Amino acid sequence: MISRRIFSGAVTAGLAAVLGSAGPAAASPREAVADPSDARPRSGRRVRNVVLVHGAYADGSSWSEVIERLQSAGVNVTAVQNPLTSLADDVAATERALAFQDGPTILAAHSWGGTVISQAGTAPNVAGLVYVAARAPEAGEDYTALAGRFPTPPATAQLVESGGFKQLSRDGFLNDFANGVPRRRALAMYAAQGRISDSLFAGTTTATAWQHKPTWYAVSKNDRTTSTALEQFLAARMGATTIELDSGHLSIVTHADDIARLILDACDQAG
Fold first, then answer.
1. Helices of type H across 182-255
2. Counting runs of H as helices and runs of E as strands, what totals does the chain give?
3. Tens digits of per-residue pLDDT, 178-197?
4. pTM, whole model, 2 decimals?
5. Ranges of the chain with pLDDT below 50
6. Number of independent structural domains in the chain
């Protein structure tokens, strides 16, 4: 059985302070997380490049709060703009971003982006993978069938279709996708949401990058877009270093400190 490590958001925040200490109480490297508020260059950081992959019903700006924190910590950050037209198209966009990196890179994804990095993460310059409330299929796996074994989240009933594309209704976006997000930010994200092709989720991966790279996972305990139980299952299956947050689906907005710490931990430990 694959073991997993689950840390609460509070413990994760506490460990951030420990990381900078050289005293005997310092946590082990695998358990500690870096402090995103520390903008000083870290000579010991193994990986200094991060590529961020957004999910469905969003765009690259959904990572804005995390981007600010990573840049303040001296990390080079690139946010992919997925077309959301097919898995192949999104993988190609991510591969183009990876090709621009000048060294080892942490590849992080939110939601649908987890499917993308499970394929694109096989690139040789990818040193580690971070999943945030994200899908993580095995090669060839029917993810829809897998998700059907877990509770159906409320957002599923809030999809609106037109012209071969889907988006979330206003109520579905604000109440189920962006629950917990400040209303002004949620409304702005709703206006910019990425419409997905009808066939987007039908794509299946041909690779399982998380079987070959170190992984980290952030579970959202109040998620109304993806089943929390499904997220926990995926994190355990990949044997990821895992944190659980009192967050809705968009922890990259509401818990940006925790997500940035998790990515920085990956930067410090991968490679």
1. 183-191, 228-238, 251-254
2. 10, 10
3. 999 999 999 999 999 999 99
4. 0.85
5. 1-34, 37-43
6. 1
